Amino acid sequence: MLVVGIGNFHRGDDAAGLLVARGLRERLPDSWRVLELEGEGTSLLEAWAGEDQVIVIDAMRSGRPIGTIRRFDVHREPLPAEAFRVSSHLFGLAEAIELGRALDLLPRRLTVIGLECGDCGMGREPGPEIMAAIGRCVEVVLEEIGRPSEAR
For the segment 63-107, what is each residue's pLDDT rounded down to a tens digit? Predict the structure, then answer.
């Protein structure tokens, strides 16, 4: 079982997924691994290969208030790709999920936790709204881990 935090520490609020992953590292059961990745699609496909349950945390932009946390079960609904275009990768999280779906390479349970971001400019620090939301997002992921598995 795997948690993947996605982001870039040099791009302000885009560091959100990485910060949540670091906050989770000491709080997860031993059966869970934590990875920090920049979000390039092929590295995501490689990371979750063979995993049964994966939770991915990433910054997103959907027009909601900064710090809003959203949960997506990608087996039930497609990830809104336009909301996850925060990074500079052309082949990112949404594209990795759709390729994994097409090739039948998705984990049995794949959940994306999106954290609404603001400023992701180069050389910026994460803003106060994101920093305030990190602890809440850690709790959301811990709740997700405790959620009973749903039949597919």
Answer: 999 999 999 999 998 888 777 776 655 678 988 999 999 999 999
**Nearest in space to 55 (alpha carbons), one of 29, 83, 86, 87:** 29
pLDDT for 150: 54
- Start-to-end CA distance of the chain, whole Å, equals 17
**In terms of residues, how long is the chain?**
152
Helices (H), the chain: 16-24, 41-48, 93-102, 128-146
Q: Could you tell me the residue ranges of all domains in the chain?
A: 1-9+41-117+129-145
53 has pLDDT over 60: yes
Alpha-carbon span 91 to 116, nearest angstrom: 20
- Residue with the bigger pLDDT between 42 and 84: it is 42
Please list, residue by residue across 3-29, b when 16 or more beta carbons sit within 10 angstroms of its beta carbon and e when fewer do.
bbbbbbeebbbbbbbbbbbebbeeebe
Choose among 5, 15, 17: nearest CA to 122. Answer: 15
Superfamily of domain 1-9+41-117+129-145: HybD-like (3.40.50.1450)
29 in Cβ contact with 85 (< 8 Å): no
